[in-house]
Specification:
By secondary structure, the protein is of the alpha+beta class. The chain has one domain. Helices cover 29% and strands 26% of the residues. It is built from 3 helices and 5 strands, in the order ααβββαββ. The strands form 2 sheets. It has a 3-stranded antiparallel sheet with strand order 1-2-3. It has a two-stranded antiparallel ribbon with strand order 4-5. The protein is globular. About 3% of the residues have low confidence.
Length: 146
């Protein structure tokens, strides 16, 4: 069973990601204007609804540097049935557990995981994330100063 602290950490991380998603539409509009010239052409695009109000999209693209693949999960952060939460290893910020394992551990009755994304780099010796990591509204790790 997931403890209160773990639940709060997941909640905070997902809240932070949701906050970022509110800022992304403005950049997305600007990016779409230059998308074909900057990223190449879309060869194939497919979408599937992975949950009520959540869509997974994947694109095969051709750019000047060769073929590329793009994977996206989109949802409306105003949808109270969905939330964005941080992944952790046994309730800790650090660890070298894979994304699939973290998602599997978090997927419980009342907390169904419909998507998991590897969103940070980490120190290979300690497993500590190299970027900012937030949970429950608290900054748990800071980005390096260099």
């Amino acid at each position: 069973m997931i403890g209160k602290r773990t639940t709060k950490v997941w909640s905070s991380l997902l809240s932070g990601a949701m906050l970022l998603s509110l800022l992304l539409p403005a950049g997305q509009v600007l990016a779409e204007e230059n998308s074909l010239s900057a990223t190449g052409s879309i060869v194939d695009e497919r979408q599937i609804e992975i949950g009520p109000g959540a869509t997974y999209t994947w694109r095969n693209m051709q750019s000047d540097s060769g073929p590329e693949k793009l994977h996206m999960v989109e949802f409306d952060p105003k949808n109270s049935a969905l939330s964005l939460e941080p992944g952790m290893t046994d309730g800790k910020v650090y660890g070298l557990q894979g994304v699939s394992k973290m998602a599997s551990d978090a997927d419980k009755e009342g907390n169904r995981v419909i998507a998991a994304v590897n969103g940070d780099f980490y120190d290979m010796s300690s497993g500590v994330p190299l970027g900012m990591f937030m949970g429950s509204g608290i900054m748990l790790t800071s980005p390096p100063s260099n």
